[in-house]
Amino acid sequence: MRKGIVVVLAVLLVSAVWAAQGIQAASSSTPRLPGYAIAAMQKINPENIRAQVRFLAHDLLEGRGPGQRGGDLAAEYIGTQFALAGLKPAGDNGTYMQKVPMVGVTPLPETKFELVPQTGKSMELKPLEQYVAYDQTQQSKSDVDAGIVFVGYGIEAPEYQWDDYKNVDVKGKVLLMLVNEPPSEDGKFFKGKALTYYGRWVYKYEEAARKGAAGVLLVHRTDMASYPWDVVRTSNSGERSYLQLDGTPKLKVASWIHLDVAKQLARNSGLDLDKLMSDATSRDFRPVALPVSLRAHMVSQVRPFSSNNVVAILPGSDAKLKSEAVLYTAHYDHFGIRPDMTGDNIFNGSNDNATGCGILLEVARVFALANPRPRRSILFAAVTAEEQGLLGSEYLGKHPPIPAGKIALDLNFDDVPPLGEPEEVEVSGAERTTFYPIVQATAKDFRLTIRPDARPEAGHYYRSDHFSLARVGIPSFSVNEGMKYKGHDVMWGLQKAEEYTAKIYHQPSDEYHPEMNFIGDAAIARFGFALGWQAASLPRLIGWEKGDEFERPRLKSLGLE
Q: What are the chain's domains?
C-alpha cells in the first residue's frame, strides 16, 4: 500500500488518497468516507501493528493468561495505549478496566477417570493422552458414578425438527456425544456445510447441563472437530477459567475423550462406534444406554480471581447520535505459562491474538486523530478469557458500557496472519446483517474479493468474541484476510492456514518472528476502519436480516419485543 499524496485541493486529496489505497471510486449509492476520515485512515502503519504484536507476544508477558501476571500486564499496557491515544475510559468507576469475576479450575493428579463395564475389566484413562476433563461446578472435589448414555450429537433443535434426546430422562447420567452436527448439503438444514452453534462443544455442555446430566464425554475426531487432539490437549491442560457461578446449571464432568477410547468404549459395550455414529445422522435416532459407567473422582484446585476487559470510548460528534456507538473488539488473552510442560512452556499467542490487539490499538489511534470525529461514538474493547470459552466478551455482552440496543455494530479482529498483502477478505456473518451491502461495496472499493468462509464446517462464527455480542442482539462479525495474497495463488494461502492449524495454533510455537509481514494486518485495519466509520454515520441502527437466529435478541434490546 502506497502512502497518500498530499494535495492542496480537498477534492483532489480525497481522490488521490483513494487511489493510493488501491480503492475504486464508489458509486453514488455507496456510502463514502469524507476526506478527513480518509486522511486519518492513511495514517494506519503496519510497523505500528508489528511493534504492538512484538511486545504483546514477548516472553515477558508470559502468554497473557487470565488472572496471571502476564495477563494483568497486558491489560495495563493496552489501557495505557488507549490513554495515550486520547480515548476516554469506559470501564468501571472511571477506569479503563471492566472487572470480570472468574474462577480458575485446575485438575489435580488425584483425579481418577475410569470406565467401568458391567462385566469385565475397567479402564482407567490417562489425563491429556486419553481424556481431558474439568469440573464446571467449581468444587474442590466431586464424585460421579453414573451410567453412560450415547445421545448422538446431543442436539435439540426444534427449528430443524431434530431431537437427539427424545424426552429420555438423562438426569444424573453421563452423556457420550459427538462433536459437530448432522452432515448436510442443504443450506436450510443446520445451514448445510456451515457449522451452527448446535455443533459447538459449548452448546453441548450447556444443553446437557440444562437436562440435568452429571457429565459429558465428547468424542474427538479431527475431521469433525476441525483440529487435532493436540489442540484439545493443550487447550485443556492446566488451569481453565470460568465466570463465577450465577445459578446456571453446570456439569461435574465436562470432558473430551480420544477417538481410540471411544472405539474401545463401544467395543466393551458390544457395539460398533462407526455404526453408532452412522445411526446418529438420522432424525429417528434414539439415545442408547451403554452397559458401562463412568466412575470419576474429580479433584481440583479452585482459585477465585478477577481478570479485566479493557474498554475505552471516543465520543461521537453528533449531539443526538453520540449516545450510540460502533464497537471494535479483540481478545488479548492466551494460555499463559504451563508449568507442567517441559521445554518451551510459554504460549505467546502472537497470531492468536496479539495481531488482533495490534490492529485494535492502531484503529483506535487513528480514529482519535480524525477531526471532526465520526457522528456516533466508537467503543474499543480488548477482552479477556476468549480462549477459555469467550468469557470476557460474554461478560461484556451482559454488562455493556452502553445498552446493547444502542450499539450499531461490533467488528472483531482475531488471529489475522501477518503473511503479506491480501487480495481477499473474510467477513463471515456479515451477510446476516442489514449492513452487508455496505460491506460488499467497501470490499469492492478496496479491491478485495469477499471470500466465503474457507472452512464453514469449523464453525468459526461461533468461535470468536463477536458471537458473544451477537447473542445479545448486536450485529457482529469478524474481519480477516482470505486465502489469496498478492504474489501467491490460493493454494499457497490454504497451505499456510493448514500448516498453522497443524503446527502452531494453540501451541508454544505461536511466536513473533521479525520476518513477519504486517502489510496485510494494516490492510485489514484500514478496511475495518472504513466499515466502522460508515456504520457510525448511518441514519439508523443496523439490524439482522429477517428470520436470523439473532433477530429476536436485537428486537428485544431495542424494546420492540
A: 21-86+315-557 (3.40.630.10), 105-302 (3.50.30.30)
